[in-house]
Amino acid sequence: MKQRINEHTAFHNFRNDYRFAVQTITGIAMINYEDVLLFEYVKHARKWQVRLVNDRIHKLRSTVNSGDITSVSSLFVQINQYCIINIIHLLGIENKTQKCIFDAPLQMDADRTVSPLYYKKIKDMLNIL
């Protein structure tokens, strides 16, 4: 019995290192951290959704808030009231416009600008030379 518990624990830890579970409106989705591009708040639906690098979208339950999302991983960083990005895909932030620059294939049409409040927090979090 003890061996079975250890195997379960090892499996659970493996899953947490690479993936996390998301309760969507249709079920539970297991998502790799590096597959997440960003989370965005949809005002009219009053829900967060996760956008993956392959452009797939999972709509989250309405009870999920920004604190729930950012507590999943330090990779998820809020840039404004309506957007949380995966810092893995961030190449930089323009000084003048504070617009986020993502990996080339991941550049989006939508404007992803860092608000002044979150810009200071992001600068404090990053190791800037």
- Secondary-structure-based class equals alpha+beta
Uncertain segments are 1-15
CATH topology name, in short, is OB fold (Dihydrolipoamide Acetyltransferase, E2P)
Can you identify the CATH class? Answer: Mainly Beta
Give the helix proportion (percent range): 10-25%
Kindly give the count of domains. 1
Question: What's the SSE pattern?
Answer: HEEEEEHEEEEH
Gross morphology: globular
Number of strands: 9
Strand order of the largest sheet: 5-4-3-7-6
How large, in whole angstroms, is the Cα Rg?
16 Å
* Main sheet: strands, sense, barrel: 5 strands, antiparallel
Helix count, DSSP H or I runs of 4 or more residues: 3
What descriptive keywords fit this protein?
single chain; 129 residues; alpha+beta; OB fold (Dihydrolipoamide Acetyltransferase, E2P); two-stranded antiparallel ribbon; globular; disordered N terminus
How would you explain this protein's 3D organization?
The structure is a single chain. The model is unreliable at 1-15 (pLDDT under 50). The protein starts with a helix and ends with a helix. A hairpin with a 4-residue loop joins strand 4 and strand 5 (57-59). It is globular. The protein has 129 residues and is of the alpha+beta class. The strands form three sheets. The chain has a five-stranded antiparallel β-sheet. A two-stranded antiparallel ribbon has the order 1-2. A two-stranded antiparallel ribbon has the order 8-9. It has three helices and nine strands.
